[in-house]
Amino acid sequence: MARLIDPSLEKLSFIMAEMGDMVIESISLAIDSYLDGTNTMDKVLALSDSIRSKYYEVEDLTFDMLLKFQPVADDFRLIRSSTEISYAFSRFGRYAYDITQVRDLFGDVSECTNASLIESTKKVKHMIKEAVMSFAELDVRKAIKIREDEKVIDQIYKDRLPKLIESNNTKCALAEALLLRYLERIGDHAVFMSDAINYIVTGKHRPSEARIASHTKSD
Fold it and tell me: How far is it, in rounded angstroms, from Cα 53 to Cα 40?
């Protein structure tokens, strides 16, 4: 039997799915435009603004549900965490726009060695997709793997930064340092999102292995 809160929960899920799709598109556009030397600033800005608008929409909807339905247990955790996750989505959009600004400021960077960036961006794209999917499916096991990916991005950042400081090519060093920093911050927000998904499913932001196992979906 359908509950009074169910239509609002379905609307919330729909908005969050829309935001997830826009986040994946904006991050991919921004990263690819930097590496390929194309300008997607206006398109990424429009996506970032749309994501931000939907974040406010989620805030209004969740506040309305809390007042009208006074949800408890699973519903409450989903509603509360949706606000946190939608904020993470809005930060993803903003970082995507920041990346396009780096490309616009520094211009052609084809002379630069981008091996570390390519490795880091590949991992970030994977993390974002996994974060969006793990929320859509409420798959706690998939969410846990995001933390492992984030450690790789952190390590690339820590290993590469000392080498950039010693570089003789100031332009390439500055551009790469900015990009790596943005990617590292995107990784942090993906982990924040992973913690929120853990909370929705298990009731804990950092659940024990036993708790994870008890909430893991069987194949």
Answer: 20
Global pTM value: 0.89
Tens digit of pLDDT at every position of the chain (219 positions): 788 899 999 999 999 999 999 999 999 999 889 888 888 999 999 999 999 999 999 999 999 999 999 998 889 999 999 999 999 999 999 999 999 999 889 888 888 888 898 899 888 888 888 888 888 888 888 888 898 889 999 999 999 999 999 999 999 999 999 999 999 999 999 999 899 999 999 988 888 888 888 877 665
Rounded to whole angstroms, the Cα distance separating 29 from 27 reads: 6
Q: Which two tokens stand for residue 213?
A: 């196992």
213 SS3 class:
helix
What's the per-residue H, E or C state across 169-180? CHHHHHHHHHHH
Q: Are the C-beta atoms of residues 121 and 184 closer than 8 Å to each other?
A: no
Task: Give the count of alpha carbons within 13 A of 159, CB side only.
Answer: 11
Which pair of tokens denotes residue 156?
């690339």
Residue 8 neighbours by CB under 8 Å, 6+ apart:
61, 64, 65, 68, 69
Domains of the chain plus CATH, in order, are: 5-213 (1.20.58.220)
Query: Which among 120, 192, 122 has a CA at the least distance from the CA of 152?
Result: 120
166 DSSP assignment: T
Contact 183, 153 (CB under 8 A): yes
Rounded-to-integer distance, Cα 90 and Cα 72, Å: 26
Sign of the dihedral through C-alpha 155, 120, 180, 171: positive
